[in-house]
Specification:
Elements lengths: L4 H13 L8 H12 L5 H12 L4 H26 L3 E2 L2 E2 L1 H4 L2 H19 L4 H30 L5 H26 L4 H28 L2 H4 L5 H4 L5 H9 L2 H11 L9 H14 L1 H21 L9 H12 L3
Antiparallel strand pairs: 1-2
Helix pairs in contact: 2-6, 3-4, 3-8, 4-6, 4-8, 7-8, 8-9, 9-15, 12-13, 12-14, 13-14
Amino acid sequence: MNKTLQSYLEDISGEIRKLPLDGEPGELYKPVSYCLENGGKRIRPLMTLLGCELLGGDVKRAMPPALGLELFHNFTLMHDDIMDGAPVRRGKPTIHKKWSINTAILSGDVLFALACRYISKVPDSALRSVLDLFHQTVTEVCEGQQYDMVFETKKDVSVDEYVRMIRLKTAVLPAACLKTGAILAGAREVEQQKLYRFGEYIGLAFQLRDDWLDVYSDSTEFGKQTGGDIISNKKTWLYIQALAMAGAKQKEFLLDAFNRPGSVDDNTGKVEAVKKVYDSLGIGELAQEQMKEYYSKAFGYLDIVCVPDSGKENLRELAKNLFDRKK
């Protein structure tokens, strides 16, 4: 009988607490501990374990690379927050706000080094495949982040361009986590790819949910600043879709509102003005429909993985939890 998601999450949290993060100088390692202790859904290590479990592998062998992938994810968040100037992450001050930008850069680098160490802790027979996938994923995540930054100053960004960007920045990592688990289970390449595509579409839906929550969530539940993407002029799926659908007057109003100066302390007018256009065009509902389409495609790939349906229950439950999440 498969373990429950909660049981796996408890195992992951227990292993994270064992990580060697009490080194010197403390100014380097304390931010790393702060980052990892500051919550997080642990989705990516969970996907690694579930991918291995689904295809009949030894889940204990998948734990070290699962931890490594979680460390890499947190490294990307630490550096993303610097680039975005984000003041809050998971309801608490970001590393660069609590310490400094230089400390956040260095502590992020330590996280990356630890990630590489743990991802390498796999049987020699799987090492090349796991590392090749990891290096490909790191490169693609960086490509996605660069596109994201380019889009901040690019006037015209299409929905297709945005989807390509979030596939790289967000979706390839959960896909790689699932495939890493499948590799460690000794699965055939065709089965590995089915799980990879499942993870890609879950990742796309996850990012759209994040875009939607940024506008429509309760900030106390979301754990990040509501309207943060609007304040920082991020061209999300909602904004790009609204711009494509707006009539001449709505488009003029949206561009004017979006390009207003916004700040952490005084942003209500900007956020509410942009949201008003979204609401008039039904953008929130359209985003939810697109999420459902991505989830449907994801389940299409999970359905054809050649294992009994009863073994897919944990992945189905996880996907449902991600679809319904409020933060």
